[in-house]
Amino acid sequence: MYGVIDFSLIDTMPGGQGAFAPPAGWQGDYRQFLRTRFDSDCGARQHIAVVGRRLFIKIEGKPSEFLGPHAVEAKEFALSVWSARRK
Q1: Reported confidence tier of residue 7, pLDDT bands at 50, 70, 90
Q2: N or C: at which end does the chain have fewer Cβ atoms within 10 angstroms?
């Protein structure tokens, strides 16, 4: 999962690449999946936090685009992670 990460494209498709993509064939509560991944994997935690920061401060240039069946939930989760860190 690690290596060069394109923060402008967030894939939520099961079997996709990156911290937001569940394993192939996965079914379940997506928000719980993200919470578990966030809590247990430091690389995923960093990836999610950076995406949340990009959303929060509205980085100029190409914004993060969320693709796949969990795009809305992924965006909300990333933003909530960064917002919680700012308190």
Answers
A1: confident
A2: C
Give the chain's radius of gyration (CA, Å).
12
As a whole number of angstroms, the distance between CA 68 and CA 83 comes to 23
Query: Which amino acid, 29?
Result: D
Q: Which phi and psi (to 5°) does residue 68 adopt?
A: 105, 180
Which residue is associated with the tokens 């999610």?
48
Question: What is d(CA 40, CA 62) in angstroms, rounded to the nearest whole number?
Answer: 29
Q: Residue 76 has what pLDDT?
A: 95
How many angstroms separate the CA atoms of 39 and 58, rounded? 25
pTM: 0.86
- Indicate the angle between helix axes 42-57 and 30-40, nearest 10 degrees: 110
Residue with tokens 């937001």: 20
CA distance linking residue 58 with residue 35, whole number of Å: 23
